[in-house]
């Protein structure tokens, strides 16, 4: 009897302990849930529902800036946490983001509609629609190719809305590629479908961009410059002396060696020849000349004014750029270009990596072959 009594008591303790353990586990779960809410694993507390009080302007072009004001935007934007949509099209560029104000650029393919703001899993939208004004498009350039200093016409569409907003030609800036960065020119004339502008003298070929005041910036087609010629080394006419010609490189050159190329002038005007060459020998230089008679050019005495030093940069790969000219050329006329390798010390001269012909920026110079 006593043993049975002790066994019953022991079993009751086990049941009691099991009950207490279950209660403890349940309490832990509830506490964990409460803590989870406090720590905001879902992000709903960390990112409370945003509200929009106003936005401006209420219409705009692609790439224009829209300001949105309100609350609970978040101190800063995190990728995929803060997102804005214009008529269902997500914006790609944000210029400013704070808890109460956002500045966002209208995406290129935006559509008229409410602006929707998402902050994590919460979202809201503007009470009224944002009207997307069809942006300007640059369709073509005439003439193309062209030259520095000439006037070109950019043809496109949707220019009239800028005129309606009061923009004048002076408000429109065209950006051209340059050797470093860009150069700009102010629009001369503006119509519903065209704008004219002068090409800066230091512009180079590449895509042009047009800034319509602060309303829109649009990229247009590529502008090419007539007259630019880049020589393929393997198309040489003849060589003389110690020289080795390969695709993209001329090396193993010694004093007095030369290479001659043949080309046709694309237009009438003044042209400069440029070279990119490297050496690790002091006293190295290149002489460049152009003529329309191969026999005369081959035997002609070198003009010292057309000899340029190639700087010793300690290796055979770091180039020095040389400019020779200007040479007066006539359109559709065949010419020969001769590059002579010279040195005042040692035997090896330089490696030539690039050779080209460019339309001179200043067409008023006196040509060297006049």
TrEMBL record:
Organism domain of life: Bacteria
Transmembrane segments: none
Domain IPT/TIG: 50-123, 137-211
UniProt protein name: IPT/TIG domain-containing protein
Range of residues in the leader sequence: 1-36
Keywords in alphabetical order: Signal
InterPro entries linked to this entry: Ig-like_fold, Ig_E-set, IPT_dom
